[in-house]
Structure formats: C-alpha cells, structure tokens
TrEMBL record:
Signal peptide: none annotated. Belongs to the FrmR/RcnR family. InterPro entries: Metal_Tscrpt_repr, Metal_Tscrpt_repr_sf. Pfam families: Trns_repr_metal. It comes from Paragemmobacter amnigenus. This is Metal/formaldehyde-sensitive transcriptional repressor.
C-alpha cells in the first residue's frame, strides 16, 4: 500500500480544489473576464499546486527517507526525492 493512501482524503480534496480553480479559469476565459482577474486565478492555481507538491514531498521524505528500513532504501528514497525536486524546480 502506498504511503499516499494514508492521506488520500486530504490529497483528493486538494486535487478537487485545483480542478475547481482550473474550471474557474476556463469560465473566466469563456466569459471574457479581465486579464488581471484571470492572472489572479492562475496564481491561485500555482499556489494550490505548490501546496499539493509540498505535501507529497513531505510524505515521501517521511516514508522513504526518515522511516526507511535500511541505508540502501534511505539512499534510494533520497535520490527519488532529489529527482522530483529537480523536475519541480525547473
């Protein structure tokens, strides 16, 4: 079982909020809303996405680095974390 299943309800709530925010951007674009309003909505999506990523990173760090069964598992978890962070921070 994945460690994300322990926080599944919280993670799904975040994803559903993101979905709602994206739909708000879509509706605003269709309605011809002012660009500043759409930019503010997009900034909210970015913030919500970052919050989701931080929560997932924290879960990964706790499960695969801090609470790893042995040094090899800890090293593998740390390397996975580094790769994800590199992709996220590009």
């Amino acid at each position: 079982m994945s460690h994300t299943s322990h926080h599944q309800a919280t993670l799904l709530a975040r994803v559903r909020r993101l979905k709602g925010q994206m739909e708000a951007i879509e509706r605003s674009l269709e309605a011809g809303a002012p660009c500043a309003d759409i930019l503010n909505l997009a900034a909210s999506v970015r913030g919500a996405t970052n919050g989701l990523v931080v929560e997932l990173l924290e879960d990964h760090l706790q499960s695969h680095v801090v609470k790893a069964d042995d040094d090899a598992a800890r090293a593998a978890g740390a390397m996975e974390l580094v790769e994800v962070m590199r992709r996220h921070l590009k």
